[in-house]
């Protein structure tokens, strides 16, 4: 009994920390509608800056608390700078572009942090005056945890006061509902946005700084906290402060008791709860349906037409080269080309969901990974030959696509993106934590092709044939009646229903089909590498796929292909040439979003049309 | 006070306004009349900077405001009352007014919540009520009051009579006459000729995004064929 109470208390302490970060994320979203991936980076920066300040300042109360507050303020200023330099320019861009741009910031901050503080974990000092522990029900409980339990409600109270008792807060709440109208009443929205970013980032920095006495400071803090903060914010309802507090409580306690009951599946549990909440309440516990996004102007999506003549010739030439040249290449080049082929199919499959389907997926790597694990597990546990493994890959991915998709395609916008992310994280957690079956972090090794396909050249041709075949099939699907139905429901679900299209079923099937295609790519990737790892399903790989599609442009069929080639090629070169590849990749992402919001293929097409008159 | 000349505006590729010209003098009430979809709301949005004008000039109080941002235009003393009302539903009446509050304008008596409650008595009885729990008529009064809190010299009033009961329309007309008496200029958009003639000095008729007729209310009432052609349904 006493144990349970203590467990509940430590759950409260985690909930408090989680709430600090999530509250910042949710107020930023409420006003700017930007889902800020970099929020986790601000949290990490808060911890690092606090480490430096606290260890440099004189010891004692002033040094410690001054360091914590100073770090939070500094992070607030960094957030302000990011808003002014980057986000302010892309408020009108599509949601996924904004998400991507903030992910670029994540990469940049990671690299810079490593440059400044190094790769090793740092251990900060403990809080003066709160070093010891106290006795609760005869058991010892750390004082600092008790202090943290108090911080959450105090911050919540202060924020509620700020939002309900000041003019600034009133303006922010008004802008959360209708920012254009607030502007028409004479309020400078830019100031409002910048200040809300300052506040939100400050909260993230404070959350990070307060972790200093609790855990080591490391380079993985950003992505681990951001996924949890996303869960909290989405479960609570995007933009709702009290919702975030409730959700933080729920998730914090679930962690605490999950460890007691089923330590193996704590990660899965968290995302399962998020999925459940979203299925029952599509806008989170206290969220409101997204107002018909006022203030942003969406432009009508252009139709997908056949590729212009020259592009067709270019494609045929590239294909010719891909067939003729490889016999003259070495093994390394052949592996790279094989990887390129799978990347093309991976991107094309995501494109089906995003382009013609008009849905957002932030967890497409799940299906790539499920394909890879399907093939690898069959090889490992059943001794299945390669062709069986390759057949199982799309099957596994497709079946899970059907199951996950059943829930995901009911939602739209950010909530849909977050649910796909949640399912991907569930898949990832299972691969990561179910060590007996999946080997956990060590992955499954020795997934090699059968003897006949063992030569790199043969395997390359196999991969090329399968990926090309599947990509062309996806293209055909887009122009088949199914593809028209898919686009019809994207453009207007209501009108599509009126002409007898079952929008839900079409979206669902489209989602599953894309998942199966990603599974083929994953299976081939596994045999090409000879191994599978949980990272195949990680967030970074989902972002890779998004980058390929967005790089290429969502509204052209050639987009994902060009995007996959450009992205994989770029990454390959960067990793080889420089240690700073994350910095450069991040900067490239940011630059692309800023300068080519239509993607590369879109930009090329626009130039082409400008030069040759409107097609 | 407000002069619009050669104003043109697009929604995407659709050309909505073409060479719109109108002007409103100091202390004057001018009504922009036209059928559904004629371009009344778009004209107001283009003046306010909410729809970027593609060509033309908008001069307000001696300054060119075409192409400026809405908040800058509002700060110059141009108030906008949207047709859809766009009350902040999560905010109380008092908070809605607070969002609109701006410093006083020289030469005009500054608006306070109390003065506005005298103008719209029903609002005074529900100061703490969330905007989402008000009737359409109450919301219409609140949206006007909210804009007045900015102490504008001129307000763009987009179809204030829409969806209101006849009694409420009468009261709305009284309120508008009271505003005019304060020295406020008003550009009103209307389909309801009866309501328009109660409050306006002059009328301008718009049809398919072009100005078709301008003149005094008396002239309009005399010109049967004009009303027949552009306003009858
Ligand atoms: N957001 C928009 N996108 C595209 N077209 C629009 C949009 N808003 C209005 N339109 C079109 O512009 C034209 C003018 O519309 P506007 O709203 O200015 O008319 P109105 O005179 O105010 O009509 P009403 O009396 O119904 O309010 C109409 O043909 C309308 O269909
Ligand atoms: Mg209108």
UniProtKB/TrEMBL annotation, chain A:
Entry membrane topology: Multi-pass membrane protein
Q: Where is this protein localized, as stated in its record?
A: Cell membrane
Q: Where are the transmembrane segments?
A: 6-29, 41-58, 64-87, 99-119, 139-163, 191-210, 230-250, 257-280, 388-407, 414-435, 458-478, 508-527, 547-568, 580-600
One Pfam short name: BPD_transp_2
Q: Which InterPro entries does this one have?
A: ABC_transp_permease (IPR001851), BCAA_transport_permease (IPR052157), LivM-like (IPR043428)
Q: Has keyword Cell membrane?
A: yes
Cite the entry's keywords alphabetically.
Amino-acid transport, Cell membrane, Membrane, Transmembrane, Transmembrane helix, Transport
Primary location group: membrane
Could you tell me the superkingdom of the organism this chain comes from? Bacteria
Q: Which family does it belong to?
A: Belongs to the binding-protein-dependent transport system permease family. LivHM subfamily.
PANTHER family per the UniProt record, alphabetical? ABC TRANSPORTER ATP-BINDING PROTEIN, BRANCHED-CHAIN AMINO ACID TRANSPORT SYSTEM PERMEASE PROTEIN LIVH
Protein name as catalogued: ABC transporter permease
> Which species is this record about?
Belnapia arida
From TrEMBL, chain B:
Enumerate the spans annotated as ABC transporter domain. Answer: 2-233
Q: Which SUPFAM superfamilies match?
A: P-loop containing nucleoside triphosphate hydrolases
Q: Which of UniProt's keywords are assigned here?
A: Amino-acid transport, ATP-binding, Nucleotide-binding, Transport
Q: What terms describe the molecular function in GO for this protein? A: ATP binding
Among Pfam families, the record links this protein to: ABC_tran (PF00005)
InterPro entries, per the entry: AAA+_ATPase, ABC_transporter-like_ATP-bd, ABC_transporter-like_CS, BCAA_Transport_ATP-bd_LivF, P-loop_NTPase
Give the family this protein belongs to, as stated in its UniProt record: Belongs to the ABC transporter superfamily.
PANTHER family associated with the record:
ABC TRANSPORTER ATP-BINDING PROTEIN, HIGH-AFFINITY BRANCHED-CHAIN AMINO ACID TRANSPORT ATP-BINDING PROTEIN LIVF
Protein name in the entry:
ABC transporter ATP-binding protein
UniProt source species: Belnapia arida
């Amino acid at each position: 009994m006493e144990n349970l109470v203590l467990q509940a208390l430590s759950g409260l302490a985690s909930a408090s920390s989680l709430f600090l970060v999530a509250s910042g994320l949710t107020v930023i979203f409420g006003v700017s509608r930007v889902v800020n991936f970099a929020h986790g980076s601000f949290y990490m920066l808060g911890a690092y800056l606090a480490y430096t300040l606290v260890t440099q300042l004189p010891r004692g109360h002033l040094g410690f608390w001054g360091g914590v507050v100073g770090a939070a303020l500094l992070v607030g200023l960094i957030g302000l700078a990011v808003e002014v330099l980057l986000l302010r320019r892309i408020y009108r861009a599509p949601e996924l572009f904004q998400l991507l741009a903030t992910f670029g910031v994540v990469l940049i901050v990671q690299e810079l942090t490593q440059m400044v503080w190094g790769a090793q974990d740092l251990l900060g000092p403990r809080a003066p005056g709160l070093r010891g522990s106290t006795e609760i029900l005869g058991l010892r409980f750390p004082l600092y945890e008790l202090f943290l339990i108090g911080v959450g409600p105090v911050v919540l109270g202060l924020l509620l006061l700020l939002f309900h008792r000041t003019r600034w807060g009133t303006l922010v709440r008004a802008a959360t509902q209708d920012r254009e109208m607030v502007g028409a009443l004479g309020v400078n929205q830019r100031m409002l946005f910048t200040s809300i970013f300052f506040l939100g980032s400050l909260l993230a920095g404070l959350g990070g700084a307060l972790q200093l006495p609790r855990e080591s400071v490391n380079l993985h803090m950003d992505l681990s906290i951001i996924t949890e903060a996303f869960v909290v914010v989405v479960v609570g309802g995007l933009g709702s402060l009290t919702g975030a507090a409730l959700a933080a409580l729920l998730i914090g306690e679930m962690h605490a008791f999950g460890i007691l009951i089923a330590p193996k599946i704590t990660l899965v549990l968290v995302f399962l709860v998020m999925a459940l909440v979203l299925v029952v309440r599509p806008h989170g516990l206290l969220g409101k349906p997204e107002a018909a996004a006022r203030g942003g102007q969406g432009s009508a999506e252009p139709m997908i037409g056949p590729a212009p003549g020259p592009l067709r010739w270019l494609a045929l030439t590239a294909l010719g080269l891909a067939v003729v040249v490889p016999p003259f290449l070495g093994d390394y080049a052949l592996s790279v080309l094989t990887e390129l082929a799978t990347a093309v199919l991976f991107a094309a499959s995501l494109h089906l969901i995003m382009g013609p389907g008009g849905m957002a997926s932030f967890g497409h790597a799940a299906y790539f990974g499920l394909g890879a694990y399907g093939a690898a597990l069959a090889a490992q546990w059943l001794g299945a030959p390669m062709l069986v493994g390759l057949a199982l890959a799309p099957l596994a991915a497709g079946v899970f696509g059907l199951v996950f998709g059943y829930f995901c395609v009911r939602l739209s916008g950010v909530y849909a993106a977050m649910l796909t992310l949640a399912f991907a994280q569930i898949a990832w957690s299972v691969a990561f934590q179910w060590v007996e079956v999946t080997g956990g972090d060590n992955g499954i090794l020795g997934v090699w092709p059968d003897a006949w396909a063992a030569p790199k050249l043969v395997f390359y041709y196999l991969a090329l044939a399968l990926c090309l075949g599947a990509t062309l099939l996806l293209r055909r699907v887009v122009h088949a009646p199914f593809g028209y139905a898919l686009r019809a429901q994207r453009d207007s679900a209501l009108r599509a229903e009126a002409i007898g299209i079952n929008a839900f079923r079409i979206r669902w099937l489209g989602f599953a089909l894309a998942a199966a295609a990603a599974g083929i790519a994953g299976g081939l990737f596994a045999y090409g590498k000879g191994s599978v790892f949980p990272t195949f399903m990680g967030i970074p790989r989902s972002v890779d796929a998004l980058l390929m599609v967005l790089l290429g442009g969502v509204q052209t069929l050639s987009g994902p292909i060009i995007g996959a080639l450009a992205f994989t090629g770029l990454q390959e070169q960067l990793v080889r040439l420089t240690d700073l590849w994350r910095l450069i990749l991040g900067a490239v992402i940011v630059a692309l979003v800023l300068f080519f919001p239509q993607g590369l293929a879109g930009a090329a097409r626009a130039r082409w049309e400008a030069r040759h008159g409107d097609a | 006070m407000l002069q619009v000349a050669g104003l043109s505006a697009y929604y995407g590729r659709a050309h909505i306004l073409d060479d719109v010209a109108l002007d409103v003098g100091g202390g004057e009430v001018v009504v922009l009349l036209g059928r559904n979809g004629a371009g009344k709301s778009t004209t107001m949005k283009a003046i306010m900077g909410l729809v970027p004008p593609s060509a033309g000039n908008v001069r307000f109080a001696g300054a060119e405001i075409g192409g400026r941002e809405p908040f800058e235009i509002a700060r110059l003393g141009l108030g906008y009352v949207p047709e859809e009302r766009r009350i902040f539903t999560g905010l109380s009446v008092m908070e809605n007014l607070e969002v609109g509050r701006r410093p006083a304008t020289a030469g005009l008596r500054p608006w306070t919540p109390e003065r506005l409650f005298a103008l719209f008595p029903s609002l005074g009885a529900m100061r703490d009520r969330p905007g989402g729990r008000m009737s359409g008529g109450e919301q219409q009064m609140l949206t006007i009051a909210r804009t007045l809190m900015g102490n504008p010299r001129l307000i763009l009033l987009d179809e204030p009579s829409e969806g209101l009961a006849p009694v409420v329309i009468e009261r709305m007309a009284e309120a508008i006459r009271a505003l005019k008496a304060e020295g406020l200029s008003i550009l009103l958009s209307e389909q309801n000729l009866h309501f328009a003639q109660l409050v306006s000095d002059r009328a301008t008729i718009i049809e398919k995004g072009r100005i078709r007729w301008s003149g005094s209310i008396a002239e309009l009432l005399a010109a049967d064929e004009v009303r027949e052609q552009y306003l009858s349904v």
